[in-house]
Every structure is written in structure tokens, then in C-alpha cells.
Amino acid sequence: MPSGTIEGALTGIGSNAGQGAVSAWGLAWGSSVKGTYVSYSPDGSAAGLKAFQDGQSQFAVGSAPLPETEASAVRGMCSSKGAMSIAAGVLPVGVAVKLKGVNDLVLDAKTLAQILQGGITRWNDPKIAALNPETTLPDAAITVLVQEGPADTARPVNSYLKDAGTDWNPPAQDRWPGSVKGQVQSPPLDLANKLDDTNGGLSILDGSIIGNRFVAAQLVFDGKPQRLQASSVVDAVSTGNVTASSNAVTQALDGRSGYGLGTVIYMYVCREYTDDHMGRLVRSFGETVLSEEAQKNANAFAFVMSPSKKAVNEGRALVNAIGDGQ
Amino acid sequence: MSLFLRSVRGRSLPRPLPTFALLTAIFFLLFGLWSLATPLMGVPDEPAHAIKAAAVVRGQVLVEDGTSFGHGVHVRVPNYIATLHAQSCYKFNRAQAADCAAPIYTDDTFTNIGVTSAGSYNPMYYWIVGLPTLVMSGAPAIYGMRLVSALFCAVFFAAGFTALTELRRPKYAVLVAALAMTPMVLFLGGGINPNSLEIAATMAAFSGFVVVLDNRRGTKRVLPALATVAAATVVLANARQISLVWLLCALIVGVCSFRLRRVMTVFSDRRVLTAVALAVPGALLGLLWMYIAANGPANVGVAPEGIASPHPDAPLYRGFMIMLDQTYDFFPQYIGTMGWLDTPVPELVALVWGALMITGLVVPFCVRPLRNWTGYWVALAMLYLVPALLQTALWRGMGFIWQGRYTLPLVVVLFISVGLGLRKLRFPGGALSLRISRVFFWLVVACHTLAFVYVLRRYVVGISEIANWQTLFSSPHWQPPLGWLPLTVLYLLVTAVGALLLFRYLYAGSPLVKGSLSHAGKSRPSSGTVADDTEGSNRREPAPSGAASATGQPMSAGESLRQGK
What is the CATH number of the domain that holds A298? Predict the structure, then answer.
């Protein structure tokens, strides 16, 4: 093998939200570095972290950065330096509605919380009507369908509702409060199929699934309704807070400047691999993930937005430092 | 070659060993040429099976807890093996030549995680096929795996054909079995995938079984066939779980192809019982593996991406009905849909084999009495029902994943059962028959070669408007080992030799190229009785009743039709 050649396969386990993005990144890596390949299994963030810790994958994907103590305790394929979390994409999350005759809808945090908890049961409820004065709402029952936790989509919605001052107490950030109706054990695509068959249905799905298939409700952020569309999400990302340390680059969404509901896709990688070959492979993959081309791929194929420029630059710095003793 | 001819011409008993050796060599050459012509990982699911094989020979036989994930089982293998999935840049895209794949280096051996969806499969096939990776590395090791698999399959196909020659009236069965060796069967034989072994072993088990049934009073004469059944049974029990279904189907069709009394007699024979006793421990090992696999971690959590999606709430009857509806949609895949279902053979090849297959399926409706065709009816019913039942069972969890190649063991059995049904008819040997057969044999050789070179074209320049036959010569993007043209010439030669041997066997030494062989003049004159005389020299039992005429002589197909029997 000529010196400096990078060839090899990487294996990752992690969140469902990361599937489309990792697939797009893998394609970009395979086309820019011939002879490379990524196998990714969307078995969930918890399964991903466990596999990463057990040395069953070179990376994992989750919807939150690893806490510092947890990151430094990771071993598996990592040296004693542990792991780091890098914000690598943002997958918008939306309130998907299937309601005959209704093509646009506005909801605010309090109304959404009441709908999810069964406090509002019909679409022509005065509270919904007040938010949608120009829409004729049918007298139809609301059927809530959400994925029983842990769910990637629960985290941003929990945060949105809690921040809005509603009485919202989830048992964990990625789980729905017990009071939320219609919790079903279905993967997101099955949930979407169920919603498709349910007139009057409402669900929380990621933007790539909602697409043009369902109406995505406009959500009120900072008193202003924001539509789930790429430009609006990018606005919220670009002004969102970014933090950087030696073991994490985090990204937040700013609801004041755009649509602020989204799952941040974090890639967990080792700061240093016990095997140099792995370090070289992951470094090459990480560089591709944060490249413009891979981020464009993820946006085009999976509706995943790029983190802000600052987050990308900080992420690149961490990736480039993999295994160099820093 | 001469040994083979002597065995069928000059002796009262066939000589199975030289026949077997010769056929093994021919099948191995055919599979080997497909191995070289197909870029590494160009055979369906080849990466998963190659990774599994490399893991098994490194002691990773069982699926350990914590190694099973949604996309498959994680194993530790050399990086050049773990990275085999990266060779898939041309997959599903027949316009893409194989030059997009990266080289597989021999020194790329650091240990990496490999992902295989074959994790919980029985290790028997993989133990054998994975051996080259212990003594070689890189691309040569992968070709080595392919060649070992090819040899494994060649042995069973050769054993099956050798067994068929021991039928009391073997010619129709041998001819139909040879025609059932479609380009797809040969293509699969060149890859790393137990699917090919499954086809070969099912064919061998069925052929050996019917030979034993056909020679119930002289099982000593057909000991090689008996050994073939025992060996194929053990192999099928230790291939994939579905292989046992094909074995069961083959045995049932075999039983139905003969009278029940004959079957009962066979199963009281000491030699048959010995063979059963030898096969049982091997079969039990296979069952034990199934138990272990069923109680271990899952093989894979989701269907292969892009192929299927689960239907957890789907009504099962609907899946069953859809599959019934699609029974004949799979025929093009039986003939040849190479690569990752991305390269159907040229239309001419599909038409020729389509015509052959339809003829095979229709013949039983034309030759009376219909009760002689019980084996065929049962096999035909199985072709409808068994894939439908199996796919229905998988529908909810994995979606529609069925491919034609999965059914090929049953398809081969079905067509051999047609040959068995015809065995009571006289094999035509007149001058006209010879002339027609010559043309027909060359047509088959041409179609095999056309399929081969077309698949090479697909990988050398891609199949697109700008990549035609001319660009294959002028600007090849990818070249297989030895080059595409030498491989094609070799393939033409081997298929021609195979056709020549078959022709001389069927027509008692007549040359496939009239007057081209020095001893052609010595061949017996072609007449309506030549072939039957040769067969008659091997008679060990009186001609069976049924389609036989009142004089006890077998009838030609034409006579049978004329008499409305």
C-alpha cells in the first residue's frame, strides 16, 4: 500500500436522527477518499454510546454532547484521554399535522403542551382558533401520536416547552412526560405511516420525514411564528450559541432569529485511538464530515443543516488533533 | 474426455470416478472464469459472506453478546476484509464500470471491525471458504476464497450429474439438468455466497436420490450416488437454514417421481440405511446450530438498507398473494440477472432460456399419462407455494426481500423432474435430430458466452449509451485478471468442450462439429435407435411400464403423443 494511503471501514452506532446525515457523510468520504466506507446502525443514542464504550464501534452518534466525566471515562478503542463530542449537523424537528382541508397552522408552546397532554382534544378548540384566525378549523378530534422514549425528537420539544414556562416535567431529556397522550412504540417511519392514516393526527417528527408529506405547524418563538424551512433553521443555527472545549463542541439553536426546534447531531469520537490506523481513519472521516461538500450532501439528502461556521471551525480543530498527543 | 466417453460407450457400467473428475474440472473452470470476470464483491451479498468467512477461520464462530446490531454482527478481521463494503461503488449502477473501486492491498492487514449480515449462519461453508485468508492477503486472498467456493460447488454439481448418468434411462434427465445450468447458476458459482453451494448440493441430493430410487434392486451399483445424497444432505443441513427446506422439497419430489412401493423398498435396503445413518449425525449438527443460532443474539436487526422495509402490521395473506402473483416474474432472475440485480443478460439469452424453460414446463402437459408426472406436479406446486410461504413469513420483519436466486435450488429440481418424467421415452437419435441438436447446442454455447462477455462489458466499460461493444476494445476502464478478451475466449472454449461432451454422450460419440474430429468417422451412424441402444447396454431392469409400449420398448415422444398416452 503506498505510504499515506487511507483505506478502511469505520463502524458507527447511534441515533435514528443521525442516520441520514451519516449516510450522506459516508458517501462524501467514499467519493473523496477512495476505498473508505462507513457502516452505521441507527440503534439509538444509548445503544450507540454503549457500543462505543465497549469498543464495538469507532464512533457513535447522539443528540446531546457527552458530559465531561462521561467523555473522559470512555475507553473501548480510546486511550486514557477518553472521547469528545462534536456538533456535526442539525436536523429540524417539526409538529406534523394531518388534517383534511388545513394547509397551514400556527401553534405556540402552551397550546402544543395542552394538545400533547390531552387538555385540548378538538381542532376547533378556541385556543387553537385564536392562533389561527384566518383558518377554518374542522370539528375533528385530535389524535396525538408520538414515539415512546427515548426519542431524538423528544429532546428539543421538551426543551422548547419547558423554556416557554409550561408545566412540563419529562423524566429525562429524551423522554416524554407520562402525561403525554398517544405514546407508541414505533420507529419514526412507522409513526409517519400511522399519521398518514389518521385524519386529525398530530405527531412530532423530524423534518426529513415531514417533507411535503404533512403540514408542519408554524411554532411561536419569542412571540413570532416561525415556519419549518431550511432558511429559517439556518438562521436559528447561525446565531445559536457555540461552546468549545478540548472534549466538546456544542451548538444551540436561537429561536429569536429563526425556527429553533431541531436535534443537534453529535458525533462521539476518541481523542486518541489505541490503534494509530483507527486514528488516521477517523481523522480523515471527521475532516470530510465537516467539509462543505459533506454538509451540502447531508442537507440535500437528509435535510440536515450544517452547524454554524464557528462550530464547524472548532470541530475541525478537534478532529485534526485526534491522536496527536494534545 | 476419452475416459468419459468410454465410460458411456464401451462399458456396461458407467465409471463414475472419471466422469466425476472431468465434470468437476469443467464446472470448476466455468465457475473460476466467472470468479475472475466479476470484480471483487460484484456478487450479491459477497462482502457479508467474505467477512463472515474471514471471521470464522479466525475463531469467531458464535455471535457473542454485545456484537449484534441493527446492521449486522461485528467481527474482527483484517482491514482489507473489513473494508470490502467499500468496493460497492458500481453496485446497482450498471453504467458505472468497476474501475471506481479502490485496490485491495496485501499489506492492509491491521485488525478492524467488519460488519456482516451473515453472522449467525452455520460456519461450515465459511470454515472452508475462509481458509485462503489465513495464508494469503489482499485481493489474491479474496480470489482464493472465490476459487475454494467454486471448487466446493463444482464438486457437488459434478456429483449430481455423475449420479444422473447412473439412471437407467439418463439422457433426458442429464440434458435437462445441463440446460438448467443457466448463466445465473454459473455466475453465482463464481462468488463467495453459500447460495451457490445450496443450488449445487440440492441438485446433487435430488439427483443421487432419484438414482437410488431408480436402482432400488441394485443399490450396490449406485454407491457413488448414495454417497452423494448423504454428503449433500449433510452439506445442506449445515448451509443456510433455508437449505433444509430445499432438501426436503428435493426429497419429496424424488419420492413423488417414483411409485411408493419402490420408495419403501429402497428404505429397507441395508446400504441406504447405512447412508442415512452416516448422514444423520451431520444433519443433527446442522439442527444443533440452528438451535444455537435461534437462542443467540440476533443476526441482523433490520433488512438490508435499500432493499426492503418491514411491514409490521401487514396482513400476511396479502404478502402471500403478492408472491403468488409474482411467481413468473422471477424467471428472468433464474436465467441471469447478474451483479447486484443490476445486469440482466442480453435479451437473446433471456429469450432462448425463456423458450427452453417454457418448453420444459409445458412438456408434461403433452406427454401421457399424466400420473407419470407426479414429481413434476409436486415440484411445480412447490415453485408456487414454497417461496410464497417463506417470503410471507419474512414479510413483517424484513419486507419483500425475495430474489430469484433464492429459489434456484427448487428450479433446478423442477427441471430435472421434467427430465425424469421423460425418461420412459426413447431419446431421439435420427439424422434430423442430430442436425437440430447441433444447432441448438451451439446456440446454447453462444448464449452462455454472450452472457459472460456482456457481464464483462458491464464491468469493463459499463452499460450505457456511450459504452458499447466497440468501446470495450478501444477504451476499457477496468480489466479483470488476464484481461476480458482472453477470459471470454477461455469461457467459449470451456462451454464448447462441455457442450461437446454432452453431445457425444447423448448421441453416442457423434461429434458436435460434424466431420471435425478425426474419429468422427468411427462414430456410430445416426439412426433412431443409436442412443437407445447405448442406453440399452446399461439396462439393469426391464423397461418400466407406463409410457412403455406393449412390447416393452420405450416410445419416442412423438409416438407417445400420437397414441395419446
Answer: 3.40.190.10
How much is the average pLDDT of B76-93? 95
Within 8 A by CB and 6+ apart from B176, the residues are B360, B415, B416, B418, B419, B422
What is the identity of the amino acid at B235? V
Structural domain for A208, as ranges: 92-233
- Same-domain check for residues A247 and A320: yes
What pLDDT is stored for residue A323 in this prediction? 80
Residues linked to residue A61 through DSSP beta bridges, in sequence order: A14, A267
pLDDT, residue B515, reads 59
pTM for the structure as a whole:
0.89
ipTM over the 0.90 cut-off: yes
**Do both A108 and A200 map to the same domain?**
yes
C-alpha of A270 from chain center: 21
Of B120, B151, B98, nearest to B49 (Cα)? B120
The closest CB to that of B70, out of A43, A189, A277, belongs to: A43
Residue B256 is inside which H or E element, if any? Answer: helix B241-256
Chain A residues within 8 angstroms (CB to CB) of chain B:
1, 5, 7-9, 11, 13, 30, 34-37, 39-43, 47, 50-51, 54, 56-58, 189-190, 275, 277-278
On whether residue A68 sits in a domain, the answer given is yes
Choose the most confident range, by mean pLDDT, from B213-217, B318-322, B491-495, B520-524.
Answer: B491-495
**CB contacts, 8 Å: B312 with chain A:** 190
pLDDT one-digit tens code per residue, B525-552: 433 333 333 443 344 333 333 333 333 3
State the total domains in chain A.
2
Cell of A16: 435514528
Show the low-confidence residues of chain A (pLDDT under 70): 324-326
Beta pairing partners, A93: A206
